[in-house]
Amino acid sequence: MSSAKKEALSVQFLISMLTREKTESAALASYIKAHVENMKLSAESILIHQCDRNAYEELSCNGHKVRCYHFAERGVGLSRNNALMRADADISVFADEDIVYEKDAAEQIRQAFMQHPEADMLLFNVKVAKERRTYWNDSFHRVRWYNCGRYPAYSFALRTGKMHAANVSYSLLFGGGARFSNGEDSLFISDCLKAGLKVYAVPVCIGEEIPRPSTWFFGYNEKFFYDRGVLYHYLYKKMAPVWGLRFMLKMKSALAVQNVTAQDGVMPDGKTALTWKMAWSLMLDGIRDARKGI
Q1: 200: which residues sit within 8 A by CB, 6+ positions away?
Q2: What digits encode the pLDDT tens for the residues 154-171?
Q3: How, if at all, do strands 99-101 and 141-142 pair?
Q4: Three-class SS of residue 159?
Q5: Domain ranges of the chain
Q6: Distance of CA 63 to the CA centre of its chain
Q7: 113 partner at 20 to 30 Å CA-CA among 1, 19, 36, 250?
Q8: In this model, does residue 7 exceed pLDDT 60?
């Protein structure tokens, strides 16, 4: 590939956004424009806006075109798929509405792919609050099936053509607005690896998350552990109980901290405080039910 062609790599941000309240069209357009401008995107983007209507419009934010698709639907997996199927740049970057990007993020992403032509997908650093951090790349390294479960969508950048050719898409069973809690990002990377795509993590920071309430996490409750069991079946199949036990051993301290406020086995909100044994049983139930077919 010539140097000129390498320099021509185009980057496109694929933004997922949700508005629950009904808003007039004019006010909604102003709100979206202001919000996207605050993200400081340094390339054109496709915005999938889940709201109360179906419509299409084009905006200009920070000098870059935003193709905005409004859909009267819910589900983060559906949102990612709607963006990915419309992506037409060389590099697609999954983005969330609460990420503020470095001013040269698009260029950093472009340069990383030029430096690593062997990579079909790169996972970048994004700063988050300490209690929400699940990863941080200190070095360039290959991502495999056994260490792909901790990366969020906003770290993903991928070669669009390779992704379309592999026909990989997001699960509609997991994530905000879906039947089961989080895990859609882990499944996506897992499916990419199964399709033969080469995934690497890079020690390059492209932005920072602005804290906001979680759309799916409401404490370590029954649903959390059951859903995690279902997820582990899809991720690890026959090895799900082994990886599930590994996860549960790490959860001991978190459960103990949560249960400090319990009195006679009841949490302040009136719900039963889960013991480690109860939580592990729920996770096994999720694994077993998923094996039977969800």
Answers
A1: 116, 118, 119, 121, 122, 123, 140, 141, 142, 143
A2: 999 999 999 999 999 999
A3: unpaired
A4: strand
A5: 3-209, 222-292
A6: 27
A7: 36
A8: no
